[in-house]
Amino acid sequence: MCGIVGIWRFAGLADDRDSADAHAMLNAIMHRGPDGQGYWSNNRLTLGHCRLAILDPSERGLQPAITPDQDAVLAYNGEVYNFRELRQELENCGIRFLSESDTEVVLWALYHWGVDEAVQRFSGMFAFAYFDRRKNALWLCRDRLGIKALSVAKSGDRLIFASEDKALLRASGFETRGDPRALTLSLALQDIDSHLSSFAGIRRLPPGACWRVDDEGIHENRFWHALTAVELPRLKNRDLNVQDARNALEELVRRSIRLHCVADVELATACSSGVDSGLVTAMSGDYVSPLHAYVVAPDTGVSEVEGARRTCAKADVPLREVKIDRAPYLRDFATSIYHIENGNPANSTAALLAMTRQCRKDGVKVLLTGEGSDELFGGYRWQALSAKRARLAYILAALGPTGKARERRLDRFRRSAFANAVLTGGRVEHTIFSTSLFAQQNFFTEEILETLEPVSPASARVFAGNGIFDLYGHMQNIIHRHDRISMASSVELRVPFLENGVIDFALNLHPDFKYRRKQGKWLLKEVASDYLPRENIMARKKGFPITGSYLEGTETLLKRGALQDILGWSVRDTERICKICDANETLRTRLVAHEVFSRIFAFGTSPEEMGEKLISSSTL
User: Fold this and answer.
1) Which parts of the chain sit beneath pLDDT 50?
2) Is residue 185 a contact partner of residue 121, using CB atoms and an 8 Å limit?
3) What is the four-CA torsion angle of 241, 243, 247, 252, rounded to 10 degrees?
4) Is this prediction's pTM over 0.70?
5) Which positions ≥6 away from 27 have C-beta within 8 Å?
6) Most buried of 324, 550, 557, 588, CB within 10 angstroms?
7) 229 phi-psi bin (left φ>0, alpha ψ -120 to 50, beta other)
8) What is the tally of helices (H) and strands (E) in the chain?
9) pLDDT per residue over 203-239, tens digit each?
10) What would the DSSP string read from start to end of 508-532?
């Protein structure tokens, strides 16, 4: 796990400014890779890389990585878990390796097979910049579901790119300006992190992106998308043998966890009271010894601690409890907003920062978590709600007095089929808002349902579609935050449920195996029944809950603050908003987070100073 930066010249030659900018950009994200740094340049391209050494921590793993003939160079962030299998194939082709790292395997795979074929073979999480002198072209790519990030911006005749937005802000000639569209959508609680940066002029490569940059410009392509990966005959199959399906899923998850446990440094798991992280913890114990788990223990509110204790006791894995209270939480809240680069944190974001800091303090550099399971296996309540609404919508449509009336009712439902989408409710103002500001997600809903049209009944089609929608919406916010926060602590977060084989199985599993007997993740829970306490399996999902009460009183920061200026609130408006925030935790968290973000990036207040301001304004 690392950080990458780069500058490509569309015209003219690279100069000293590019080199100076690459150094400044890399310094902004050195937390991503404190174990080493390197630079490479030619007359068109300048690359920088900072390394978090996980596999082969010797100097042989330093980057940028270059082929012996100097024809190809790679700056790479992430892990390709099937690198040993790929290495064997490449060795059979006559390629000799000098290190034990996956970086060298990725470089030779791109060089030998070509980018288009190589990325299809990679199973893991990655973002990379690869230059091939034979083609005089640069490729910028992200993994299938965008676990690892890459941001780009055009500045004059230069394309600048980096693992985090804040690095781009350090490039000379690039102005730090907020993006009004991103601010609007974020305040409206929309899932934008896979689509939009909070800064004007910065783009984020979408999940599965494979962009080619050459003399003719930027050619934007995707090598993978969930909708094209769906195999309708498999997804339609409701007649799978339950035991066979259960065995297949258990084998896939076990294989993924085994691959994710490969590391030359200390590894641990994050364990909550839930099924996903609990199963990862229980299975990891078979591949890592000694293994321990972490859980956050807040001093107030709902806690995952008791459930985590039950899981770890059954799995015989020691549990380390990371205690938090208000003052440290508020300091970490401000720091976490700086790192996630937007005002869209969850209450748990600051707690994750505390956990990963403790990991690093304990010498742990790799942490396994359970993200992605809910999206893939139907764990969110709104997915079941969407299916329920679909059943009702089709009944009401069938009762329409005319064919046109029936079709109108179905059209109205299709535009708001997913309960967590922008258009829920179908009101005219929602339609205008969504279509104008977030068209790609609005129309994505319809595209999903059109693709899945052969799946029946309609409720199953909507349930499956909602899961795909969540992969590119809700989950993108989570993995964006978790990448930024874990790397702020120089810890690699790995997500075994987002492995190619598990993704393929889940995408093509009929919803009857995901939701049954009023239970989400039904088949996964069947697998978990051999590993986890029944009380944990049957418990209602908590979702890493951290109380919003830590932020009580901080709404007073809105008075004479940045948002008041940016959004044009009057003094009276601000007073009213503060009163509403006093009674509404969700609104308070969102507005205070955006206030903190704006003061840090627009007004230049340090995260440390903002943390102290939060403490002084809170109701202690």
Assistant:
1) 423, 425-426
2) no
3) 50
4) yes
5) 170
6) 550
7) alpha
8) 27, 17
9) 999 999 999 999 999 999 999 999 999 999 999 999 9
10) TS-GGGTSBTTBTTHHHHHHHTTTS
